[in-house]
Amino acid sequence: MTRAWISAGTNVEPEYNMRAAIENLRQAFGELVLSPVYRTRAVGFEGDDFLNMVIGIDTHLPPDQLRTRLREIEKRQGRKRGEEKFSPRTIDLDLLTWGDLVDAAAGIPRDEILRYAFVLKPLADVAPEELHPQTGKSYARLWQEHLSEPHGLVELVGIFDNAGDAH
User: Fold this and answer.
1) Residues 113-128: pLDDT tens digits?
2) What's the mean pLDDT in 55-81?
């Protein structure tokens, strides 16, 4: 089994869609590791705030098949591919890492880890000592280095506990 980290974000009926994504991922992969949920401003367009979190799964699926499963979950939740890159989302599930694999052609690890607080902070919350496969730095250290930059996180949202249940 390989640990994969997935970024989840939504700004369309966000609490409903985040809960649905967690349940769909749980049905597909079993036990999940859930970060805290953060409310963040929309990036790249004017729109409602997003809810963002990171979800850990253990899987035998290779990255390409895992991405296919994530796209199926997005589609089931009403995501339409081909929308503008920066636009409202019912759910966005992005494969961040797959073990310690580095595959630039496949976009693993995903570059958003090092660019966006709404990806790095929740990853640092659930895997602080895990090392980024390219930099060799822990996610906690990367977050500390990122703190000097404006990051757009609005607030921690206490709507889920680690089991994904509503508070």
Assistant:
1) 998 899 999 999 999 9
2) 92
Percent of the chain's residues with pLDDT above 70: 84
- What six digits make up the tokens of 141? 């250290």
Question: What is the rounded CA–CA span in Å between residue 53 and residue 161?
Answer: 12
- The CATH number for 42's domain is 3.30.70.560
Helix (H) or strand (E) holding 26: helix 14-29
Classify residue 163: in a domain, yes or no: no
Q: Model's pTM, two decimal places?
A: 0.88
Q: How many domains does the chain have?
A: 1
What phi, psi does 98 have (nearest 5°)?
A: -135, 95
Distance CA 78, CA 81 (A): 10
**The residue to which tokens 């367009």 are assigned:** 45
Tokens 């889920």 correspond to 160
